[in-house]
Amino acid sequence: MEKFAAFLSLKFVLGAGSVCNKYYYNVDFPRGNVALKDFNAEIVDESGNAVPLYETYIYHWVILRYFAPKHIEERWLTNVLTFYIRGMEDQFGCKDCKCDLYKVTKDEYGTPLRLGYTGCLKCCYDETQCRWVDWEEATVPVKIMSFVPRKESDDSELACKNKKISFVLPNGDYVIYGAAHQHSAGFGSALYGDDGRLMCTSLPVYGDGNEAGNGLSFGIKIQQHYKSGRGDGFFLHLGRGSTLEILEYTWMLVFFWRDGKEGGYQQYLLGI
Asked: 11 — phi, psi (to 5°)?
């Protein structure tokens, strides 16, 4: 009989540039005669949400059956080698274990590395540290403007209609990013400037399988599309009294930096 199940390893904690190469013995996994048709692994956070590879890179994962000699008992172990590469000076160098980025001259057993050994597993063993980008004074924090739609009726036809909200920025702001938080049955969100121009959209992608990260009919990611600006988002100055308008079905979050002589920050939460 075909079955599907998910299993978790013990918790491990990663910091900037850190490496985790742990072995977990006697893990929860089916015993006896089993045939694996498919097997996938991913890193999840404390809430069970998948962590993207560009933040926590999985170098390899292994699951292996072994037997405890004392009782000749079947058991399973897992080994995961993963790197926290967000904000790294050289992400590819960190995940490829370049020795100069880890400042390693000996392997995990204290044996000096051979001449000409520039990188591989001997340089990125458990609890080693890759170089990361230091915090710059020019980097400033942001606050969040959160628009929260609320269901106004139990009527399904009414509840599925577009929701629109407008908000005037009294002091003017730099809008630097927009994204939507959406659940199953969400259709997407869009952010418009006060002149009617489309700034960005957030459209959901639904899974079509049953493997890790692709659950059938579940929202698995959000596609971001930016109509102005550059790079991974936009950087748009809205003057005093400008209006933001959102057409949405679920939350739209707008990150912004307040423009003003005081240099302060402000957070708005507005419900409809």
From this structure: -70, 140
* Size (the chain), residues: 272
Q: In the numeric block, which tokens belong to residue 61?
A: 């994962």
Coil, strand, or helix at residue 210?
coil
* 191: β partners: 200, 246
What tokens were used for 247?
Answer: 């057409």
Q: How far apart are CA 90 and CA 96, in angstroms?
A: 10
pLDDT tens string 66-118: 988 776 788 999 999 999 998 887 889 999 999 999 999 999 999 999 999 99
**Rg of the chain taking only CA atoms, in angstroms:** 24
Residue 164 contacts residue 188 (beta carbons within 8 Å): no
Strand partners, 83: 19, 57
Strand, coil or helix: 203? strand
* Beta strand pairing call for 242-248 and 56-68: unpaired
Amino acid 146 reads S
Distance, CA of 272 to CA of 270 (rounded, Å): 7
Q: Cα–Cα distance between 186 and 194 in angstroms, integer?
A: 25
